[in-house]
């Protein structure tokens, strides 16, 4: 028997044992065909032909996959050819198959090769995308001005059936925005792999790759946020220097994000919510989406009454009358108008926080009482 026949015999005997997850489809002189599978998505079909003068010339290799990137396979083919050149004069098939299997094991990110290439194209000079094959994760750092956002994006073994995980955020954006980046990023990832609750009449749900959509969202959010304006006063929401950003969530200049995605200073939002017209419910002045919180259940009539009452009260305060008497609780105190104003403002701010569709509000316990004392107080005042 010749060299090739001996090798074919050895391959058919040892392949399935020596090469994890391999299936020998054909093993004849004209073609050796082996399917190597780590997961359904990480499957490579290796087609091998013996060259003239084999084994003194390298094997002829073609790699195929229904799921992996063509560019990745092209690159891998070149590397395989180099491997075979190291083995001239010896049997090359089994070492080659083991090499490919090893490559899949050591490079878990092969399953998102095209996505990674696409992400690199949208990054700018000082941004970073570090591949950590050993941990099957990607280190992302995005910057805009003095603001930065860093996170680890893990790619699970059964990707894209399971979605990427967003971990270890490190950023100098105020906490509200960090929560938004992470919350929204994770939600986008989840939607890639979980069917919508509504039953669909069309084709059955198929999980889709989540790395690029999540990463593009993060990059875009970080790049645009420092340039966004308050939808009412039109000032920039974030100061150029991150140290000066307002992190106290009850402060006037704290930034609120509505469900529609638009940003407002808390004080601007409170003013807007408390100013007529109330007819038809309050809507985002920019995109027209409604900004009521459904739990508020405030009628237009009551909103108007409140507004009228608020106007009357500020007139009283401005005129310096009813000092302390305006408030039934806690303000009969000679510190007078400024204190009354402070408390008035505090109460309004808190209630407003619960009157709008804030992203975070979903996490707030509905028993949270900020709104209710206000309602009670207002009702008492209106009587
Ligand atoms: Zn504003
Ligand atoms: Zn809006």
CATH homologous superfamily label of the largest domain: Ubiquitin Conjugating Enzyme
In the predicted model, the low-confidence regions spanning at least 5 consecutive residues are 293-297, 320-344, 346-383
Secondary-structure element series = HEEEEHHHEEEEHHEEHHHH
**What ligand molecules are bound, each kind once?**
zinc ion
In CATH, the architecture of the largest domain is Roll
Alpha-beta content class: alpha+beta
Distance between the ends: 106 Å
What's the oligomerization state?
A: single chain
Q: Report the C-alpha radius of gyration, rounded.
A: 32 Å
Taking all residues together, what is the mean pLDDT?
81
Q: Give the strand order of the largest sheet, numbering strands 1, 2, ... along the chain.
A: 1-2-3-4
- How many beta-strand elements? 10
Query: Proportion of β residues?
Result: 15-25%
What is the level 1 CATH name of the largest domain?
Alpha Beta
Shape call = elongated
Largest sheet data: 4 strands, antiparallel
What is the count of distinct domains?
A: 3
CATH topology of the largest domain: Ubiquitin Conjugating Enzyme
Number of distinct helices = 10
Helix content: 25-40%
Question: Keywords for this structure?
Answer:
single chain; 383 residues; alpha+beta; Ubiquitin Conjugating Enzyme; 3 domains; 4-stranded antiparallel beta sheet; 10 helices; 10 strands; 38% helix; disordered C terminus; binds zinc ion
């Amino acid at each position: 028997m010749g060299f090739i026949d001996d090798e074919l015999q050895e391959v058919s005997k040892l392949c399935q044992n020596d090469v994890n997850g391999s299936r020998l489809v054909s093993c004849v002189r004209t073609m050796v065909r082996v399917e190597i599978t780590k997961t359904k998505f990480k499957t490579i079909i290796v087609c091998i032909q013996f060259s003239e003068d084999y084994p003194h010339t390298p094997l002829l290799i073609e790699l195929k996959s229904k799921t992996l990137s063509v560019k990745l396979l092209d690159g891998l083919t070149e590397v395989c050819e180099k491997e075979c050149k190291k083995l001239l004069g010896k049997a090359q098939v089994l070492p080659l198959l083991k090499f490919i299997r090893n490559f899949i094991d050591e490079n878990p990110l092969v399953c998102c090769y095209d996505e990674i290439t696409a992400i690199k194209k949208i990054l700018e000079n000082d941004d970073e995308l570090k591949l950590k094959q050993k941990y099957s994760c990607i280190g992302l750092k995005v910057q805009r001005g003095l603001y930065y956002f860093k996170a680890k994006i893990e790619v699970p073994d059964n990707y894209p059936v399971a979605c990427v995980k967003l971990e270890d955020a490190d950023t100098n954006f105020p906490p509200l925005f960090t929560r938004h980046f992470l919350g929204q990023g994770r939600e986008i990832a989840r939607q890639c792999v979980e069917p919508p609750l509504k039953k669909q009449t069309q084709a059955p749900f198929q999980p889709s790759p989540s790395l690029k959509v999540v990463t593009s969202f993060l990059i875009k959010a970080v790049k645009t946020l420092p340039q966004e304006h308050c939808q009412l006063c039109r000032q920039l929401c974030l100061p150029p220097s991150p140290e000066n950003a307002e992190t106290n969530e009850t402060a006037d200049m704290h930034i609120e994000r509505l469900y529609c995605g638009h940003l407002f200073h808390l004080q601007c939002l409170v003013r807007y919510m408390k100013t007529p017209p109330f007819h038809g419910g309050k809507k985002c002045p920019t995109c027209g989406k409604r900004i009521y919180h459904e739990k508020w259940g405030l009628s237009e009539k009551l909103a108007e009454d409140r507004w009228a009452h608020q106007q009357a009260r500020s007139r009283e305060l401005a005129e310096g009358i009813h000092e302390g008497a305006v408030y039934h609780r806690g303000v009969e105190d000679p510190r007078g108008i400024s204190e009354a104003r402070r408390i008035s403002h505090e109460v309004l701010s808190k209630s407003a926080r619960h009157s709008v569709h804030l992203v975070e509000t979903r996490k707030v316990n509905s028993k949270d009482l900020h709104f209710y004392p206000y309602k009670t107080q207002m009702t008492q005042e209106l009587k």
